[in-house]
Each structure stands twice: as structure tokens, then as C-alpha cells.
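Researcher: I'd like a structural prediction for the single chain below. Treat it as a standalone chain; there are no partners to consider.
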Amino acid sequence: MNAEVLTQAMKDCGLRFLGFRRGTGIPPYVAGMVMSCRPGEGRRDRTVALDEPARVPKANAGWFELATEFGLFSVGRQFLLSISVPYPDAVDDTDVEGVWGLVELLGDWDIMGAGCAVGITGSRYGRPAFVMSALDGSVFVQGTVWQDSIGTAALPNPHRVQSLRDVARLNIGKPYRTAAEDEDTRAWLAR
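Model: Treating it as a single chain, here is the predicted structure.
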């Protein structure tokens, strides 16, 4: 991932890229499992129908509402965004891991539209696919496309969700996990 290209793409959607962050004690792959959690485990959703003409502005509003309500933003509106980067010994462009990028939300942003269009927060305009975390890991936020809607799900206190803890435990030491991922997973489980 070219840092210059990444910085410009993030700027285009209203984010300032402040660098990669490893060793956070927050495994991005676990944060990417918010959609597998149930409302009874704390998950909260905001969705907009795919056929809604104003789906992108409404989905942006839903994302910001959840992010604000559950504390995604630190002072200075910073948070962690999972960015796919190739493994050092990657064979092809599908051999990637999620690494946290520290980002700052600027005044003029478009997570669900421009962010998706440039491939930072999705696959194309209005098609979110992102994973975010508060700097302290107190909330995970994930954007996705469902069968008939798009939207955001937030999971406060994810370290207390037993299903996530079980999956994290099962992932330690697996050949598809790096030593850094194992270290973050152990730190996260120790919370």
C-alpha cells in the first residue's frame, strides 16, 4: 500500500491519514466480526434501503450517529480504520491482513459515498465495507451491504462479548495469523 496514494484517497473522502498503528492490542480481524454479533450482545444497527434515493447521505448520518453515540471518536475525532495490506511474503493481492490506520475525521467527509468510491471504506460508491475501532478498543464499528440495505453496526464493549472472545482464542497460533496478530489477540483477551 503506497502511503502517498492512501493519504490522497483518504483526503478525498474526508479523512486524514496519520500512519499505521501496530501493536494496539486490538485485533482488526476480531473487530471485523461485529456483523456476526446479535443485538442481545450489544450490537446496534443503522440501515438504509438500497432503493432509497438519498441512501448515501442517510447512511452517512447513521454512521456518524452511531460513531458519536458509542464513542468511536477520541479527542480530535481520531479513530482506527482497518486497512488491508499485503503480508510480507504475499503470493498474490488476496494475501492480505488488516492493519490499523490512525485517521482523523475532517470537517467535510463522505464515508459511504466518496470513501467507498475510492476503496477506503467500501468497494464502490454507496457500498460500504469497513472496520473501525475506538483508539482504546471500547467500541467496534462496521459498515456493510445487506441484501436490501446498507448501513453501519456498532458494538460497544466488544471485549465482553463471549462469541468474539471464543473466536479470538481459537485464532491464536493459527498458521494464517501473524505473530503480531497473536500478540494483539492475547492483549485483547487479557482485558
